[in-house]
Amino acid sequence: MKILSLALALLISTACLGQFKKKGNNTLPKQRPTQQNKFLEKQWWLGFKAGTNLAQAKPIKSYTVMVPTNYSEQLNAKSYDSFLKTGSQATLEATFYYKGFSFSVQPTYRHTRFTYFNQYRWYNNDNSAETLELRYDQEQKLDFADFPFFIKYDILRDKLRPYVQVGIVYSMLINANKAVTISGTDYASGGTNQFANETIIVGAKDLFENYWSLAAGVGLDYNLGNVRVVLEGTYIKGMSNITNTKNRFGNDRLAGIGDAQDDLDLNNIVISAGVLFPMRFLSSSFKTLDR
Amino acid sequence: MRYLFILALVVLLGCSNDSDPAADKASFTRIYDNSKFNTTYFPIDIKQTPDGGYLILGGRSVEGSDFSGIYLLKVDAFGGFESETEIDEAYVNPIGPLFLSGSNYYFFCMTPVGFQTQLFQVDANGTPGTPIMVGQSYPLSANMDGSNFLLLTYDNVDKESIISVIAPSGTVSQSKSFSIGAGADIVIEEAIDNHFLRMGKQIPFLVGKAGSAFYFNGFYNYTLALAFTNLVADEPQGIVNGSQDKGGVSQAVPLDGGKFALARFNFGDNYFLPSATINSSGISSSSELGGNPLPELAPNAKVAILRTTINARKIVIYASDTRSKQIALFGYDEATGALVGSKYLGFSNPFEIASLTSTADGGLIVCGTTYVAGRFTRICLFKLSQEELTEAFKGF
Fold this sequence. Notes:
- The structure holds two protein chains of two kinds.
- Chain A is mainly beta.
- Chain A has a single domain, classed as Porin (Beta Barrel).
- In chain A, 11% of the residues lie in helices and 58% in strands.
- In chain A, strands 1, 3, 4, 5, 6, 7, 8, 9, 10, 11, 12 and 13 form a twelve-stranded antiparallel sheet that branches.
- The radius of gyration of chain B is 22 Å and the shape is globular.
- Helices cover 10% and strands 52% of the residues of chain B.
- By secondary structure, chain B is mainly beta.
- The relative contact order of chain B is 0.11.
- Chain B has a five-stranded mixed sheet with strand order 14-15-16-17-21, with no helix packed on it.
- At the A-B interface, helix 1, strand 2, strand 6, strand 7 and strand 8 of A face helix 1 and strand 1 of B.
- Strand 2 (66-68) of chain A pairs parallel with strand 1 of chain B, so a sheet runs across the interface.
């Protein structure tokens, strides 16, 4: 995975540096540029996108409040879901297009969710009725302000314009909360008593930090009059721990029920659709997107 | 522009909020769980070991016995489990504190038959040695006086509270007995029995030395009393009387200048006296001492007191149990007795204080009992960093 991250970083660097060095040689057809074509080599786009995202929290290092003294830690280990819970995001996009490449900043509000659970069991070897099983289901909801910088490359330049993009994202934590549901089966109270306690919901902003990510994705632009419709999918790979390492035990309500925040990388698959508007026109009757 | 981009990339790569072992040691919460449904484990005292870890003296339920067995737990500097020892059931009812003398740790316990006091030595890894027979019956409380131990015991035949000075070899070098009262009230005997069987209220028995005077908090003359003695005279030189087992001193730690950090209880109410002056040469009543009322504490709450230094200021920390089943820490300026802050530990499940001690990194380790899933009695630790202590007890 580290190699993948490194390759992604290298790709971004190369693409950027390549742009800085570029002197006249580009991918446009080698015909003599007309005034209009020359004009269309550059364009500013503004727009907005919205969509859904799926999260994957990957433990870097696991922590626990509950320390077993006579059984394996693995029996209580947390089990995280992977790209299961949907979140949502809304994005403003400002893009500068130049000869097939686009440089884009896309401030985003992102709400993302992931879950994990762990289980405990207490029993008496001499009396199987003396058994209690508990399951702790924890849902984490995080809100971030993302500040991505993307470089896009248009593979085709027709009305339908597929593109690839790579980028770097800095995510600032806005809010976080956690919902814990404890359910279980008590075999000792005279029967098979299945129960679920009321969900505990706590603010958990202190448990998390800002983080940064690398991103790569594909998308499709469709020119519709003077508007460009966008559909894209991006994989965002978290590159730094989202956990506030000084506060992992800081929430008494969570620590009291045996929960400690793991060190985590947060990865997302983000799917968005939106519209972009061109900012430069030849004249009021000229439609840049008709070209 | 190119350099700006490279700089931004380097900054982001450097912004990885990696795991922080120093932070992991400085602050943590741990609950030591055992899968046995019908076994309880509770802590008595904790000491930090030279490796930065912690040695916990505890008790455990013993099948077929009314007394508590002995449990030793060794954890590392992060609170991670290292080892546990369940000492043979031929030895029961351990009492704190856990004393450090030389490179070894010591504690007292007794035999379940004959009720004779034993002195156990434990190394820093939590490995116990062979116990030494001390001989006094029913150990109630212990303390250190230089290289010797002070021990408060109860003689159930002659109905006496006995204070003794004991060498590390187990030899009793000095001893004095005080009657709990001729034909002692059934209430007193029942209170002592319940204390030993952990069936009811735990009586706050204490023993120690303040200046040249020895003191004990135990039953004397039909009531729980804080008594001062020179171990020569037949009668105590000073007595602070409680009210049978319903009132009296719940904790006392000598301060400089003859003062005490004191806690008292009276028919369920609790009071803290962070800078108390006690009449150690006359008869007085604990209810006359006044103090700060703490209605949030559980009735007749257990209290632990620690003298420490936080941010170059001498602070006395009181730890006790709240009615809401949290552990409450109250900090007082040792010089003035003024409150400098408070902090509450634990939530969701019940938590009760056992002991607290300062750590080598300037922090605090608080050892308590919790009830996992609201049912299973287990040992818990709260490690607070120096920063957390400074913030909690910075004053007003």
